Amino acid sequence: MPMPTAVPVLSVVVPMYDEEEVLPIFFERMHPLLDGLGISYEVVVVDDGSRDGTAALLSEAVRTWPQLRLVRLLRNSGHQAALSAGFRRARGEYLVTIDADLQDPPEVIAELLAAARDQDVDVVYGVRSDRSSDTWAKRTTARMYYRLMCRLVGREIPFDAGDFRLVSRRVVDAVNGLPEDGRVFRLVIPWLGFPSAEVRYVRAERAAGVTKYNLRKMLGLAFDSVTAFSAAPLRLATWLGLFGGLLSIAFVIGALVIKLTGQSIPGWTSTVLAVAVIGAIQLLCLGLLGEYVARLFLSSQKRPQFLVGYDSLEDPGHHTYAE
Ligand code: UDP
Ligand code: MG
């Protein structure tokens, strides 16, 4: 059966990297569930350059599940990049992103959809009401991460909301319209500011296989998160420069006092003076450079200044003088 060409109501985007163990269970649970929703749908599986049997299993599955769509990335590009690919490819009116490992129960998809329709919102976050399935280290680092990010993004970021969420077509188009690379979805979506709701769910253990997020990928996500929303690390040089400048003034005074009281070794005063002053000047210049780089960086992201949510001119139920 060929792929239906009409726009489906729901697109389910699933990034997958080396998930051969979990794949059969995932399909077994997902397929009847989505069929049972009673709406048109597509499942966009983004194979993030898997090197195990995932690709073969997927090619097999596409033949028996017409709503299954396969997007394969050339190489492993990371979870967020795989989600980006899914956002660009999906066609549905609503888009749900879900992990392949069944940590996010697929049964909750119906609740996300119902919340979006009943409350007429564009974003429905899946929020973990219980993280006891995660290790202590993961819970602690996650808490630190969300706290820091709330401050940097300057908006409410739902705590414990991962990448299990539903968004409307408006949000998908807005995200795809952002020119920046390396976007972190769990920050960019709250940053856009569309009306949102939350659905609580209990996060399960990984159904099979091991985590595909190693320490390097986790640190990468943390660095991307900070640098995408803040130039604060670049400003550090300015503050260090100012601090160094004050310190060197104290040094110079100290060195002169020692010289005048006649206790100094010949050459010591001039050496200390030179080191302190040059060090401070260098740090200040670095800080200045940092300020300009920060400006360039922020403007190079080319984020839209605003996104229009409603315009009465485009609303048929609202009369304006433009008629
Ligand atoms: N994933 C991916 N590319 C990667 C790493 C992970 O597409 O480079 C997918 C993975 O297959 C899974 C989801 O992202 O569907 C979340 O990964 P995982 O469950 O390993 O992360 P954890 O739940 O341990 O944070
Ligand atoms: Mg997982």
UniProtKB/TrEMBL annotation:
It comes from Kribbella lupini. PANTHER family: PROPHAGE BACTOPRENOL GLUCOSYL TRANSFERASE HOMOLOG, UNDECAPRENYL-PHOSPHATE 4-DEOXY-4-FORMAMIDO-L-ARABINOSE TRANSFERASE-RELATED. InterPro entries: Glyco_trans_2-like, Glycosyltransferase_2, Nucleotide-diphossugar_trans. Its main location: membrane. The keyword Hydrolase does not apply. It is found in: Membrane. This is Glycosyltransferase family 2 protein. Belongs to the glycosyltransferase 2 family. Keywords: Glycosyltransferase, Membrane, Transferase, Transmembrane, Transmembrane helix.
